[in-house]
Amino acid sequence: MRVSVDLNVCQGHGVCYMTNPEIFQPREEDGQALVVLDEIPADLQDAAILAQQSCPERAISVTE
After folding, report:
1. Region label for 23, one of left (φ > 0), alpha (ψ between -120 and 50) or beta (otherwise)
2. Which member of 17, 19, 56, 59 lies 3.0 to 4.6 Å from 10 by CB, making a disulfide possible if both were Cys?
3. Are 62 and 1 in contact (CB under 8 A)?
4. How far is the C-alpha of 61 from the C-alpha of 9, rounded, in Å?
């Protein structure tokens, strides 16, 4: 599973990285989310899907 963030849509609300810091981190200059894992391990896949569903801007994509 892979996760990506559309930085043209992300507004830096921080829901993803506050709840899933092992997957997302804020970008220093503007707080937009960055994905810190190339491949999401099995034990974090539910968290990645929850982050996608919780993003207020719908900026997170999850693909198999």
Report:
1. alpha
2. 59
3. yes
4. 11
Q: What is the DSSP letter of 37?
A: -
Determine the Cα–Cα distance for residues 24 and 32; give it in Å rounded to an integer. 10
- Looking at the structure of the chain, the number of domains it has is 1
> Tokens 């034990």 belong to which residue?
43
1-51 confidence digits (pLDDT tens) = 999 999 999 999 999 999 999 999 999 999 999 999 999 999 999 999 999
CATH number for the domain including 59?
A: 3.30.70.20
Domain span including residue 11 = 2-63
Using DSSP's 3-state secondary structure scheme, residue 61 falls into strand
